[in-house]
Protein backbone atom coordinates (compact mmCIF):
# COMPACT_ATOMS: atom_id res chain seq x y z
CA UNK A 1 0.00 0.00 0.00
CA UNK A 2 1.26 3.45 -0.86
CA UNK A 3 2.43 5.95 1.75
CA UNK A 4 4.37 9.19 1.63
CA UNK A 5 7.96 8.69 2.86
CA UNK A 6 9.68 11.07 5.24
CA UNK A 7 12.94 12.76 4.39
CA UNK A 8 14.86 10.48 6.76
CA UNK A 9 13.31 7.37 5.26
CA UNK A 10 14.04 8.79 1.87
CA UNK A 11 17.74 8.96 2.71
CA UNK A 12 17.73 5.26 3.60
CA UNK A 13 15.69 4.42 0.56
CA UNK A 14 18.20 6.15 -1.66
CA UNK A 15 20.93 3.73 -0.86
CA UNK A 16 18.70 0.70 -0.86
CA UNK A 17 16.36 1.24 -3.78
CA UNK A 18 18.31 3.27 -6.26
CA UNK A 19 21.90 2.18 -5.74
CA UNK A 20 22.68 5.71 -4.73
CA UNK A 21 23.87 6.86 -8.14
CA UNK A 22 21.32 9.54 -8.90
CA UNK A 23 20.76 10.59 -5.31
CA UNK A 24 24.26 10.90 -4.07
CA UNK A 25 24.71 13.73 -6.49
CA UNK A 26 22.10 15.68 -4.51
CA UNK A 27 24.61 16.06 -1.68
CA UNK A 28 27.12 18.86 -2.32
CA UNK A 29 29.94 16.78 -0.86
CA UNK A 30 29.50 14.29 -3.65
CA UNK A 31 29.82 16.87 -6.41
CA UNK A 32 33.40 16.50 -7.49
CA UNK A 33 35.32 19.43 -8.85
CA UNK A 34 38.63 17.61 -8.77
CA UNK A 35 40.18 16.33 -11.96
CA UNK A 36 41.69 12.94 -12.26
CA UNK A 37 44.99 14.20 -13.62
CA UNK A 38 46.29 10.85 -14.91
CA UNK A 39 43.13 10.24 -16.95
CA UNK A 40 43.08 13.84 -18.15
CA UNK A 41 46.70 13.54 -19.17
CA UNK A 42 46.02 10.24 -20.93
CA UNK A 43 43.21 11.88 -22.86
CA UNK A 44 45.46 14.75 -23.90
CA UNK A 45 48.24 12.39 -24.92
CA UNK A 46 46.06 9.92 -26.78
CA UNK A 47 43.42 12.01 -28.60
CA UNK A 48 45.77 14.28 -30.50
CA UNK A 49 44.25 14.00 -33.97
CA UNK A 50 40.65 15.10 -33.40
CA UNK A 51 38.91 17.34 -35.92
CA UNK A 52 36.83 18.79 -33.06
CA UNK A 53 37.88 20.00 -29.62
CA UNK A 54 38.42 18.38 -26.25
CA UNK A 55 37.80 20.98 -23.56
CA UNK A 56 39.27 20.76 -20.06
CA UNK A 57 38.47 24.28 -18.87
CA UNK A 58 36.25 24.90 -15.84
CA UNK A 59 33.42 26.77 -17.65
CA UNK A 60 32.99 23.89 -20.13
CA UNK A 61 33.08 21.26 -17.37
CA UNK A 62 30.71 23.22 -15.12
CA UNK A 63 28.20 23.64 -17.94
CA UNK A 64 28.32 19.89 -18.56
CA UNK A 65 27.72 19.27 -14.84
CA UNK A 66 24.28 20.89 -15.00
CA UNK A 67 20.98 20.49 -16.83
CA UNK A 68 17.48 22.00 -16.99
CA UNK A 69 16.54 20.47 -13.62
CA UNK A 70 19.48 22.03 -11.69
CA UNK A 71 19.27 19.20 -9.14
CA UNK A 72 22.10 16.80 -9.96
CA UNK A 73 25.66 18.01 -10.59
CA UNK A 74 28.43 15.65 -11.70
CA UNK A 75 31.69 17.05 -13.05
CA UNK A 76 33.31 15.41 -16.06
CA UNK A 77 37.04 15.42 -16.70
CA UNK A 78 36.49 16.91 -20.13
CA UNK A 79 33.90 17.83 -22.74
CA UNK A 80 34.23 16.71 -26.36
CA UNK A 81 32.84 18.93 -29.10
CA UNK A 82 33.17 16.45 -31.97
CA UNK A 83 34.12 17.63 -35.45
CA UNK A 84 32.95 14.33 -36.92
CA UNK A 85 31.64 10.88 -36.05
CA UNK A 86 35.26 9.69 -36.10
CA UNK A 87 36.05 11.89 -33.09
CA UNK A 88 33.35 10.05 -31.15
CA UNK A 89 34.72 6.69 -32.36
CA UNK A 90 38.19 7.65 -31.07
CA UNK A 91 36.86 8.81 -27.71
CA UNK A 92 34.67 5.74 -27.17
CA UNK A 93 37.51 3.39 -28.13
CA UNK A 94 39.73 5.25 -25.65
CA UNK A 95 36.99 4.87 -23.01
CA UNK A 96 36.93 1.11 -23.60
CA UNK A 97 40.72 0.86 -23.24
CA UNK A 98 40.87 2.95 -20.07
CA UNK A 99 37.61 2.23 -18.22
CA UNK A 100 36.23 5.75 -18.75
CA UNK A 101 32.51 6.62 -18.77
CA UNK A 102 31.02 8.73 -21.57
CA UNK A 103 27.66 10.49 -21.83
CA UNK A 104 26.10 12.27 -24.82
CA UNK A 105 24.40 15.62 -24.29
CA UNK A 106 21.95 17.33 -26.63
CA UNK A 107 20.50 20.55 -25.20
CA UNK A 108 20.51 19.14 -21.63
CA UNK A 109 16.75 19.60 -21.14
CA UNK A 110 16.94 16.58 -18.86
CA UNK A 111 15.89 16.97 -15.22
CA UNK A 112 17.99 14.57 -13.19
CA UNK A 113 21.58 14.33 -14.41
CA UNK A 114 20.88 11.98 -17.32
CA UNK A 115 23.42 13.78 -19.57
CA UNK A 116 26.13 13.97 -16.90
CA UNK A 117 29.04 11.74 -15.96
CA UNK A 118 31.27 12.05 -12.93
CA UNK A 119 34.97 11.91 -13.87
CA UNK A 120 34.10 10.86 -17.41
CA UNK A 121 33.71 12.74 -20.69
CA UNK A 122 30.53 14.47 -21.88
CA UNK A 123 30.00 14.65 -25.64
CA UNK A 124 28.38 17.97 -26.51
CA UNK A 125 26.73 17.03 -29.79
CA UNK A 126 25.81 20.61 -30.79
CA UNK A 127 28.73 20.71 -33.25
CA UNK A 128 27.17 17.87 -35.31
CA UNK A 129 24.29 19.93 -36.64
CA UNK A 130 24.00 19.35 -40.39
CA UNK A 131 20.51 19.18 -41.96
CA UNK A 132 19.84 17.96 -45.53
CA UNK A 133 16.48 17.29 -47.16
CA UNK A 134 16.92 14.40 -49.61
CA UNK A 135 15.34 13.66 -52.99
CA UNK A 136 13.48 10.73 -51.46
CA UNK A 137 11.44 13.06 -49.26
CA UNK A 138 13.27 12.42 -46.01
CA UNK A 139 15.75 14.46 -44.02
CA UNK A 140 19.27 13.54 -42.88
CA UNK A 141 20.11 15.26 -39.64
CA UNK A 142 23.21 15.53 -37.46
CA UNK A 143 22.23 14.45 -33.93
CA UNK A 144 23.18 17.80 -32.43
CA UNK A 145 20.89 19.86 -34.69
CA UNK A 146 17.96 21.61 -33.09
CA UNK A 147 14.50 20.77 -34.39
CA UNK A 148 14.00 24.41 -35.41
CA UNK A 149 16.66 23.95 -38.13
CA UNK A 150 15.03 20.72 -39.31
CA UNK A 151 11.53 22.19 -39.61
CA UNK A 152 12.82 25.29 -41.40
CA UNK A 153 14.83 23.20 -43.90
CA UNK A 154 11.88 20.85 -44.54
CA UNK A 155 9.39 23.69 -44.96
CA UNK A 156 11.53 25.16 -47.75
CA UNK A 157 10.49 22.00 -49.69
CA UNK A 158 6.86 22.26 -48.43
CA UNK A 159 7.47 19.26 -46.21
CA UNK A 160 7.51 18.72 -42.45
CA UNK A 161 8.41 16.13 -39.82
CA UNK A 162 5.12 14.48 -38.76
CA UNK A 163 5.89 15.06 -35.06
CA UNK A 164 7.51 18.37 -34.06
CA UNK A 165 8.69 18.57 -30.45
CA UNK A 166 9.61 21.88 -28.83
CA UNK A 167 11.98 23.12 -31.49
CA UNK A 168 14.77 24.24 -29.13
CA UNK A 169 15.47 20.54 -28.29
CA UNK A 170 18.13 18.43 -30.03
CA UNK A 171 17.44 15.67 -32.52
CA UNK A 172 19.66 13.13 -30.71
CA UNK A 173 18.07 13.97 -27.35
CA UNK A 174 14.45 13.48 -28.40
CA UNK A 175 15.14 10.40 -30.55
CA UNK A 176 16.83 8.93 -27.47
CA UNK A 177 13.87 9.76 -25.22
CA UNK A 178 11.03 9.06 -27.70
CA UNK A 179 9.89 12.53 -28.76
CA UNK A 180 6.24 13.38 -28.17
CA UNK A 181 4.40 16.44 -29.42
CA UNK A 182 1.01 17.89 -30.32
CA UNK A 183 0.46 15.46 -33.23
CA UNK A 184 1.41 12.37 -31.20
CA UNK A 185 -2.27 11.57 -30.58
CA UNK A 186 -2.44 10.04 -34.09
CA UNK A 187 1.16 10.16 -35.39
CA UNK A 188 2.93 8.37 -32.54
CA UNK A 189 6.34 9.43 -31.22
CA UNK A 190 9.18 10.84 -33.31
CA UNK A 191 10.89 7.45 -33.10
CA UNK A 192 7.98 5.98 -35.08
CA UNK A 193 9.16 7.99 -38.11
CA UNK A 194 12.90 7.28 -38.08
CA UNK A 195 14.10 5.35 -41.15
CA UNK A 196 17.77 4.93 -40.34
CA UNK A 197 20.37 5.85 -37.76
CA UNK A 198 24.13 6.17 -37.80
CA UNK A 199 25.44 5.21 -34.38
CA UNK A 200 28.78 4.98 -32.61
CA UNK A 201 28.24 1.88 -30.49
CA UNK A 202 29.52 1.54 -26.95
CA UNK A 203 32.47 -0.52 -28.23
CA UNK A 204 33.46 2.27 -30.59
CA UNK A 205 32.18 1.07 -33.99
CA UNK A 206 30.40 3.34 -36.47
CA UNK A 207 27.30 1.35 -37.48
CA UNK A 208 24.29 2.09 -39.69
CA UNK A 209 21.03 0.57 -38.48
CA UNK A 210 17.41 0.42 -39.60
CA UNK A 211 14.54 -2.08 -39.65
CA UNK A 212 16.47 -3.94 -42.37
CA UNK A 213 20.08 -3.65 -41.07
CA UNK A 214 21.17 -4.31 -37.49
CA UNK A 215 17.57 -4.05 -36.35
CA UNK A 216 18.45 -5.06 -32.76
CA UNK A 217 20.61 -1.93 -32.48
CA UNK A 218 17.98 0.21 -34.21
CA UNK A 219 15.31 -0.81 -31.70
CA UNK A 220 17.72 -0.35 -28.80
CA UNK A 221 18.56 3.21 -29.91
CA UNK A 222 15.01 4.52 -30.55
CA UNK A 223 13.91 5.83 -27.15
CA UNK A 224 16.94 3.92 -25.81
CA UNK A 225 18.29 6.68 -23.54
CA UNK A 226 21.79 6.44 -25.04
CA UNK A 227 22.52 3.08 -23.41
CA UNK A 228 23.86 1.15 -26.42
CA UNK A 229 25.34 3.87 -28.62
CA UNK A 230 25.66 7.52 -29.50
CA UNK A 231 23.50 8.66 -32.40
CA UNK A 232 25.44 10.75 -34.90
CA UNK A 233 22.95 10.91 -37.78
CA UNK A 234 19.18 10.41 -38.09
CA UNK A 235 17.25 9.81 -41.31
CA UNK A 236 13.61 10.70 -40.77
CA UNK A 237 10.54 10.52 -43.01
CA UNK A 238 8.88 13.82 -43.92
CA UNK A 239 5.27 14.43 -44.92
CA UNK A 240 3.63 17.20 -46.96
CA UNK A 241 3.40 20.44 -44.95
CA UNK A 242 0.08 22.29 -44.87
CA UNK A 243 0.09 25.95 -45.90
CA UNK A 244 -2.06 27.10 -42.97
CA UNK A 245 -3.41 26.19 -39.54
CA UNK A 246 -6.76 27.19 -38.04
CA UNK A 247 -5.76 27.34 -34.38
CA UNK A 248 -8.19 27.28 -31.43
CA UNK A 249 -7.66 27.97 -27.76
CA UNK A 250 -10.56 26.41 -25.84
CA UNK A 251 -10.83 27.62 -22.24
CA UNK A 252 -12.32 25.31 -19.59
CA UNK A 253 -13.74 25.79 -16.12
CA UNK A 254 -11.87 22.78 -14.76
CA UNK A 255 -9.15 20.23 -15.45
CA UNK A 256 -11.33 17.13 -15.76
CA UNK A 257 -13.70 18.63 -18.36
CA UNK A 258 -10.73 19.76 -20.44
CA UNK A 259 -9.22 16.26 -20.14
CA UNK A 260 -12.50 14.57 -21.14
CA UNK A 261 -12.74 16.73 -24.27
CA UNK A 262 -9.12 15.87 -25.10
CA UNK A 263 -9.98 12.16 -25.09
CA UNK A 264 -13.08 12.77 -27.20
CA UNK A 265 -11.02 14.72 -29.73
CA UNK A 266 -8.32 12.03 -29.82
CA UNK A 267 -10.97 9.38 -30.52
CA UNK A 268 -12.80 11.42 -33.17
CA UNK A 269 -9.73 12.97 -34.80
CA UNK A 270 -11.08 16.41 -35.63
CA UNK A 271 -7.81 18.32 -35.22
CA UNK A 272 -4.24 17.66 -36.33
CA UNK A 273 -2.74 19.56 -33.38
CA UNK A 274 -4.13 18.51 -29.99
CA UNK A 275 -2.74 19.48 -26.59
CA UNK A 276 -3.91 20.35 -23.08
CA UNK A 277 -2.35 22.92 -20.80
CA UNK A 278 -2.59 24.65 -17.48
CA UNK A 279 -1.44 28.22 -16.92
CA UNK A 280 -1.47 30.61 -13.95
CA UNK A 281 -4.96 32.18 -13.82
CA UNK A 282 -5.16 35.97 -13.46
CA UNK A 283 -7.09 35.70 -10.16
CA UNK A 284 -4.84 32.94 -8.74
CA UNK A 285 -4.95 29.16 -9.25
CA UNK A 286 -4.59 27.43 -12.58
CA UNK A 287 -6.66 27.94 -15.74
CA UNK A 288 -6.97 24.99 -18.13
CA UNK A 289 -7.25 25.08 -21.88
CA UNK A 290 -7.10 22.80 -24.89
CA UNK A 291 -5.31 23.73 -28.09
CA UNK A 292 -6.76 22.38 -31.34
CA UNK A 293 -5.22 23.08 -34.72
CA UNK A 294 -6.71 22.10 -38.08
CA UNK A 295 -4.06 21.92 -40.85
CA UNK A 296 -5.18 22.88 -44.35
CA UNK A 297 -4.01 24.10 -47.74
CA UNK A 298 -5.29 27.54 -48.70
CA UNK A 299 -7.51 28.67 -50.32
CA UNK A 300 -9.67 25.83 -48.94
CA UNK A 301 -10.53 26.69 -45.30
CA UNK A 302 -12.06 24.40 -42.65
CA UNK A 303 -15.38 25.42 -41.13
CA UNK A 304 -15.40 25.99 -37.40
CA UNK A 305 -18.76 24.53 -36.38
CA UNK A 306 -18.04 20.81 -36.93
CA UNK A 307 -14.64 21.16 -35.26
CA UNK A 308 -16.20 22.54 -32.06
CA UNK A 309 -19.56 20.72 -31.96
CA UNK A 310 -20.40 19.13 -28.60
CA UNK A 311 -17.27 20.33 -26.77
CA UNK A 312 -17.74 21.66 -23.24
CA UNK A 313 -15.40 24.66 -23.19
CA UNK A 314 -16.46 27.90 -21.46
CA UNK A 315 -15.01 30.25 -24.05
CA UNK A 316 -12.75 30.10 -27.08
CA UNK A 317 -10.56 32.13 -29.40
CA UNK A 318 -9.30 31.20 -32.84
CA UNK A 319 -6.83 32.51 -35.38
CA UNK A 320 -5.36 31.56 -38.75
CA UNK A 321 -1.59 31.13 -39.02
CA UNK A 322 0.71 30.25 -41.89
CA UNK A 323 2.50 26.97 -41.21
CA UNK A 324 5.72 28.88 -40.60
CA UNK A 325 4.03 31.17 -38.05
CA UNK A 326 2.62 28.04 -36.46
CA UNK A 327 5.86 26.08 -36.02
CA UNK A 328 7.72 29.20 -34.90
CA UNK A 329 5.13 30.20 -32.30
CA UNK A 330 7.13 28.87 -29.31
CA UNK A 331 10.72 28.98 -30.48
CA UNK A 332 12.32 29.96 -27.22
CA UNK A 333 12.55 27.95 -24.01
CA UNK A 334 10.95 30.47 -21.64
CA UNK A 335 11.79 28.46 -18.51
CA UNK A 336 15.47 27.95 -19.34
CA UNK A 337 16.67 31.17 -17.69
CA UNK A 338 15.12 30.03 -14.36
CA UNK A 339 17.97 28.67 -12.26
CA UNK A 340 15.97 27.23 -9.35
CA UNK A 341 15.38 23.43 -9.19
CA UNK A 342 12.83 22.02 -11.64
CA UNK A 343 12.08 18.36 -10.83
CA UNK A 344 9.61 17.80 -13.69
CA UNK A 345 7.81 14.48 -14.02
CA UNK A 346 6.21 13.10 -17.18
CA UNK A 347 3.79 10.21 -16.71
CA UNK A 348 1.58 8.24 -19.08
CA UNK A 349 -1.66 6.93 -17.56
CA UNK A 350 -4.34 4.56 -18.82
CA UNK A 351 -7.58 6.46 -19.53
CA UNK A 352 -9.50 4.20 -17.10
CA UNK A 353 -7.44 5.43 -14.09
CA UNK A 354 -6.62 8.98 -15.22
CA UNK A 355 -9.44 10.80 -13.39
CA UNK A 356 -8.77 8.92 -10.15
CA UNK A 357 -5.03 9.63 -10.35
CA UNK A 358 -5.18 13.28 -11.32
CA UNK A 359 -8.10 14.19 -9.01
CA UNK A 360 -6.24 12.90 -5.98
CA UNK A 361 -3.02 14.68 -6.89
CA UNK A 362 -4.59 18.02 -7.80
CA UNK A 363 -6.78 18.01 -4.64
CA UNK A 364 -3.73 17.62 -2.38
CA UNK A 365 -1.90 20.95 -1.92
CA UNK A 366 1.33 19.21 -0.92
CA UNK A 367 1.33 17.06 -4.06
CA UNK A 368 0.37 19.87 -6.41
CA UNK A 369 2.64 22.54 -4.88
CA UNK A 370 4.39 24.69 -7.50
CA UNK A 371 2.94 22.52 -10.29
CA UNK A 372 1.55 23.61 -13.62
CA UNK A 373 0.00 20.47 -15.16
CA UNK A 374 -0.03 19.67 -18.86
CA UNK A 375 -1.90 16.81 -20.48
CA UNK A 376 -2.56 15.08 -23.81
CA UNK A 377 -4.76 12.17 -24.86
CA UNK A 378 -3.10 9.75 -27.31
CA UNK A 379 -4.23 6.71 -29.29
CA UNK A 380 -2.03 3.83 -28.23
CA UNK A 381 -2.23 2.05 -31.60
CA UNK A 382 0.18 4.61 -33.11
CA UNK A 383 3.16 3.60 -30.95
CA UNK A 384 5.34 1.00 -32.65
CA UNK A 385 8.76 1.03 -31.02
CA UNK A 386 9.45 -1.44 -28.18
CA UNK A 387 11.27 0.95 -25.81
CA UNK A 388 8.61 3.68 -25.94
CA UNK A 389 6.56 2.31 -23.05
CA UNK A 390 2.93 3.39 -22.69
CA UNK A 391 0.00 1.84 -20.76
CA UNK A 392 -1.98 -0.96 -22.31
CA UNK A 393 -5.26 0.80 -23.18
CA UNK A 394 -6.70 2.25 -26.37
CA UNK A 395 -6.49 5.84 -25.06
CA UNK A 396 -3.61 6.89 -22.82
CA UNK A 397 -2.99 10.25 -21.21
CA UNK A 398 0.30 12.08 -20.86
CA UNK A 399 0.22 13.90 -17.53
CA UNK A 400 3.10 16.30 -17.02
CA UNK A 401 3.98 17.91 -13.71
CA UNK A 402 6.03 21.00 -14.47
CA UNK A 403 7.20 21.89 -10.98
CA UNK A 404 9.34 25.02 -10.67
CA UNK A 405 10.62 25.22 -7.08
CA UNK A 406 11.68 28.31 -5.18
CA UNK A 407 15.38 28.45 -4.26
CA UNK A 408 14.50 27.73 -0.61
CA UNK A 409 12.64 24.47 -1.35
CA UNK A 410 13.59 21.20 0.30
CA UNK A 411 14.56 19.47 -2.96
CA UNK A 412 15.06 15.90 -1.61
CA UNK A 413 11.50 15.89 -0.26
CA UNK A 414 10.19 16.80 -3.72
CA UNK A 415 12.30 14.06 -5.29
CA UNK A 416 10.83 11.62 -2.74
CA UNK A 417 7.36 12.90 -3.70
CA UNK A 418 8.16 12.29 -7.38
CA UNK A 419 9.04 8.73 -6.50
CA UNK A 420 5.75 8.29 -4.61
CA UNK A 421 3.77 9.74 -7.52
CA UNK A 422 5.60 7.46 -9.96
CA UNK A 423 4.91 4.34 -7.90
CA UNK A 424 1.24 5.28 -7.59
CA UNK A 425 0.99 5.75 -11.37
CA UNK A 426 2.90 2.52 -12.03
CA UNK A 427 0.60 0.57 -9.71
CA UNK A 428 -2.34 1.83 -11.80
CA UNK A 429 -0.73 0.59 -15.03
CA UNK A 430 1.00 3.88 -15.83
CA UNK A 431 4.52 4.47 -17.14
CA UNK A 432 7.12 7.24 -16.97
CA UNK A 433 8.21 9.23 -20.01
CA UNK A 434 11.46 10.92 -21.10
CA UNK A 435 14.17 12.26 -18.73
CA UNK A 436 11.89 12.78 -15.70
CA UNK A 437 13.28 13.54 -12.22
CA UNK A 438 12.34 10.12 -10.85
CA UNK A 439 14.97 8.06 -8.98
CA UNK A 440 15.23 4.64 -10.64
CA UNK A 441 17.07 1.43 -9.79
CA UNK A 442 17.86 -1.29 -12.32
CA UNK A 443 14.96 -3.31 -10.90
CA UNK A 444 12.67 -0.36 -11.65
CA UNK A 445 13.89 -0.24 -15.24
CA UNK A 446 13.38 -3.98 -15.68
CA UNK A 447 9.80 -3.57 -14.49
CA UNK A 448 9.32 -0.48 -16.67
CA UNK A 449 10.42 -2.22 -19.88
CA UNK A 450 8.62 -5.51 -19.19
CA UNK A 451 8.98 -7.82 -22.22
CA UNK A 452 11.21 -5.26 -23.98
CA UNK A 453 13.89 -5.56 -21.26
CA UNK A 454 15.54 -8.82 -22.37
CA UNK A 455 16.23 -7.73 -26.00
CA UNK A 456 17.37 -4.34 -24.66
CA UNK A 457 19.74 -5.95 -22.15
CA UNK A 458 21.10 -8.26 -24.86
CA UNK A 459 21.74 -5.27 -27.14
CA UNK A 460 23.55 -3.51 -24.29
CA UNK A 461 25.76 -6.54 -23.78
CA UNK A 462 26.48 -6.82 -27.50
CA UNK A 463 27.05 -3.15 -28.34
CA UNK A 464 28.40 -1.72 -25.06
CA UNK A 465 30.00 -4.77 -23.41
CA UNK A 466 32.20 -2.68 -21.12
CA UNK A 467 29.27 -0.48 -20.08
CA UNK A 468 30.95 2.82 -20.86
CA UNK A 469 27.84 4.74 -21.98
CA UNK A 470 25.39 7.10 -20.34
CA UNK A 471 25.41 6.14 -16.63
CA UNK A 472 23.06 8.97 -15.57
CA UNK A 473 19.89 6.86 -15.91
CA UNK A 474 21.27 4.27 -13.48
CA UNK A 475 20.01 1.52 -15.78
CA UNK A 476 23.19 -0.58 -15.83
CA UNK A 477 24.96 0.42 -12.62
CA UNK A 478 28.46 -0.80 -11.81
C1 LIG B 1 11.26 23.19 -21.60
C2 LIG B 1 11.18 21.73 -22.01
C3 LIG B 1 10.41 21.36 -23.09
C4 LIG B 1 10.33 20.00 -23.46
N1 LIG B 1 9.57 19.67 -24.53
C5 LIG B 1 9.51 18.38 -24.94
C6 LIG B 1 8.79 18.01 -26.12
O1 LIG B 1 8.21 18.84 -26.80
N2 LIG B 1 8.79 16.70 -26.46
C7 LIG B 1 9.48 15.74 -25.76
O2 LIG B 1 9.45 14.58 -26.14
N3 LIG B 1 10.16 16.07 -24.64
C8 LIG B 1 10.21 17.35 -24.22
N4 LIG B 1 10.93 17.68 -23.10
C9 LIG B 1 11.45 16.60 -22.25
C10 LIG B 1 12.87 16.07 -22.34
O3 LIG B 1 13.64 16.48 -21.30
C11 LIG B 1 13.49 15.98 -23.67
O4 LIG B 1 12.73 15.14 -24.53
C12 LIG B 1 14.91 15.39 -23.77
O5 LIG B 1 15.68 15.58 -22.63
C13 LIG B 1 15.51 15.98 -24.99
O6 LIG B 1 16.09 17.21 -24.72
P1 LIG B 1 17.59 17.48 -25.20
O7 LIG B 1 17.62 17.58 -26.67
O8 LIG B 1 18.06 18.63 -24.42
O9 LIG B 1 18.32 16.14 -24.80
P2 LIG B 1 19.27 15.86 -23.54
O10 LIG B 1 18.53 16.22 -22.30
O11 LIG B 1 20.57 16.50 -23.77
O12 LIG B 1 19.42 14.28 -23.64
C14 LIG B 1 18.37 13.42 -23.28
C15 LIG B 1 18.91 11.98 -23.16
O13 LIG B 1 19.33 11.54 -24.43
C16 LIG B 1 20.73 11.23 -24.42
N5 LIG B 1 21.28 11.71 -25.68
C17 LIG B 1 21.41 12.99 -26.10
N6 LIG B 1 21.97 13.03 -27.32
C18 LIG B 1 22.18 11.74 -27.68
C19 LIG B 1 22.75 11.12 -28.81
N7 LIG B 1 23.22 11.83 -29.84
N8 LIG B 1 22.81 9.77 -28.85
C20 LIG B 1 22.36 9.01 -27.82
N9 LIG B 1 21.83 9.56 -26.71
C21 LIG B 1 21.74 10.90 -26.64
C22 LIG B 1 21.29 11.95 -23.22
O14 LIG B 1 22.46 11.31 -22.71
C23 LIG B 1 20.13 11.87 -22.26
O15 LIG B 1 20.15 10.63 -21.62
C24 LIG B 1 11.04 19.02 -22.72
C25 LIG B 1 11.81 19.41 -21.63
C26 LIG B 1 11.88 20.74 -21.27
C27 LIG B 1 12.72 21.12 -20.10
What's the architecture of the domain at 18-125 and 459-473 in CATH terms?
2-Layer Sandwich
Strand element count: 19
> How is the biggest beta sheet arranged?
8 strands, antiparallel
Across the major sheet, the strand order is 15-12-14-13-17-18-16-19
Task: Using the alpha-carbon principal axes, give the shape.
Answer: globular
CATH-level-4 superfamily name of the domain at 18-125 and 459-473? Uridine Diphospho-n-acetylenolpyruvylglucosamine Reductase, domain 2
Portion in helices: 25-40%
- Count the DSSP helices: 16
The N- to C-terminal Cα distance equals 31 Å
Structural class: alpha+beta
Mean pLDDT: 93
Task: State Rg.
Answer: 22 Å
Give the strand content. Answer: 15-25%
Which small-molecule ligands are present, each listed once? flavin-adenine dinucleotide
**CATH topology category name of the domain at 18-125 and 459-473:** Uridine Diphospho-n-acetylenolpyruvylglucosamine Reductase, domain 2
The low-confidence parts are 1-37
Supply the CATH class of the domain at 18-125 and 459-473: Alpha Beta
